[in-house]
Amino acid sequence: MMQMKEEKTGDDVLSLKGIQVRFDDRLVLQNIQFSIRPGEFVGLIGPNGAGKTTLLRVILGLLAPNNGTVTVAGQPVKHGNPLVGYVPQKIHLDSDTPLRARDLVALGLDGHRWGLPLPSRSRRQKVDEVLRAVDALGFADSPVGRLSGGEQQRLLIAQALLTQPKVLLLDEPLSNLDIRSAHEVVRLVARIARSQGIAVLLVAHDMNPLLDVMDKVVYLAAGNSAIGTIEEVIQNDVLSRLYGYDVEVLRVRGRVLVVGGSNDTTTDLLQPTHHSNLRRLEESD
Ligand SMILES: Nc1ncnc2c1ncn2[C@@H]1O[C@H](COP(=O)(O)OP(=O)(O)OP(=O)(O)O)[C@@H](O)[C@H]1O
User: Fold this and answer.
1) 221 pLDDT band (50/70/90 cuts)?
2) Taxonomically, which superkingdom (predicted)?
3) Whose Cα sits closest to atom 29 in ligand 1?
4) Which atom of ligand 1 lies closest to the CA of 47?
5) Which of 2, 32, 9, 1 is nearest to 19 (CA)?
6) Residues contacting 163, CB < 8 A, separation 6+
7) How confident is the model at residue 192, as a pLDDT?
8) In Å, how far are 108, 139, 153 from 142, measured between CA atoms?
9) Would you say the CB of residue 76 lies under 6 angstroms from ligand 1?
C-alpha cells in the first residue's frame, strides 16, 4: 500500500485499515488503507481482477477480510447498514416490464431494514425527494424499460439515497453508458456528494470521465493500492511500483491512458478488451 500523503483521520466517514483478502491461497488484496471524508469524491480505479468489487463487498459487510478493519462513521461495518448506499452497475429487468420509474425507486423503501411499511404519503414524499435529487421527476411515471441507460442509472442512485447514506458506493456505473451520459451521471453524483456531504467511492475502469470531479483516486493493481490526488498517483513510477513492472502514463489531449507492454503490444491496462487504445483514442476525438 502506498499512502501518498499524511491523512487526518478525525473527520473520516469511511476508513479502511490494513485490509487483506485471501481466496484459498491467493492474496487478492494485500494491505489496503485509505479514508474518505464527508463530501469527498473518490474514484476506485484498477484493471480487471484487481479486487475492486471485492473491496466494495468488504465495505458493504458482505465479505469479512482476513485482516484489517473497516469503519463507517466510526462504527465497524455490518451488512444492511443504512449509512452505506450501494448503486449496482445496471438494472436487470426485461425491457417490457410495466414497473414505473418511481416504483423501482420505492423498492428501496421495502428492504427489511425499514421494518413496517411507511404510510403511503410519507413514502411518496421520500421517493419524490430522491427523484428530485437526481433530476428524475420528469420521467417518474414512465416505464423503466423505456428509459435510457443514463436515466436508469439515475434511478438506481435515487434508490440508494433513500436511506440517507453517509457513504455512497457505485460499482462501475458508467460502463454501459455513452460518453455524454457518463459525464452527466458523474456530474450528478459529484453534485449530490457536495450538496449532501456524502462520501462517494465510485469504481471505474476508465478514469477519464472522472478527472474533473475526483478529489482523490484509489488505484488498485496486483493486490496493492496507491491513494492520493490524480497528480500524485497517476505517475509512471507510482503505477510501475504497483503493477510490479514498467507502465507508462500517457496524457493525450486532456485524456489519460495507462499503458504497458512492449511497443508492438502496447495496451491500455484499464480497458477490459485488448484493442489498440491509441487508435481508439484517435477515433473518439
Ligand atoms: N468468491 C471468490 N472466490 C474466489 N476468487 C474470487 C472470489 N471473488 C473474487 N475472486 C477473485 O478475486 C480477484 C478479484 O476479483 P474482483 O471481482 O474483486 O476484481 P475487479 O477489480 O472487480 O475486476 P473487474 O474489473 O473485472 O470487475 C479475481 O481474480 C477473482 O477471480
Assistant:
1) very high
2) Bacteria
3) 49
4) 25
5) 32
6) 82, 83, 85, 108, 111, 113
7) 94
8) 18, 5, 14
9) no
CA of 168 from ligand 1 middle (Å) equals: 21
For residue 24, the ligand 1 atom closest to its alpha carbon is 4
Query: Residue 63 CA: which ligand 1 atom is closest?
Result: 1
Q: Quick: pLDDT tens for 154-189.
A: 999 999 999 999 999 999 999 888 889 999 999 999
Give yes or no for residue 175 CB within 6 A of ligand 1.
no
pLDDT, the chain, mean: 87
- Evaluated on CA atoms 272, 278, 280, 284, the torsion sign reads positive
Task: Kindly give, in sequence order, each residue whose CB lies less than 8 Å from that of residue 263, ignoring residues fewer than 6 positions away.
Answer: none
- Whether 81 lines ligand 1, by a CB cut-off of 6 Å, is no
> 32 versus 121: which is more confidently predicted?
32
- Residue 52: its H or E element: helix 52-59
pLDDT of res. 265: 66
Per-residue pLDDT tens digits for 131-147: 999 999 999 999 998 89
CA–CA gap between residue 285 and residue 283 (Å, rounded): 6
Distance in Å, CA 51 to ligand 1 centroid: 5
Coil, strand or helix at 92? coil
| Fold held by 2-83+165-242 | Rossmann fold (3.40.50)
Q: Is 46 in the pocket of ligand 1 (CB under 6 A)?
A: yes
Ligand 1: distance of its center to the CA of 50 in Å?
7
Q: Is the CB of 57 under 6 A from ligand 1?
A: no
Sign of CA dihedral 80, 82, 83, 87: positive
As a whole-number percent, the residues of the chain with pLDDT over 90 amount to 66
Residues 6+ apart with CB under 8 A from 273: none
- pLDDT, residue 282, reads 35
CATH 3.40.50.300 maps onto the chain at: 2-83+165-242
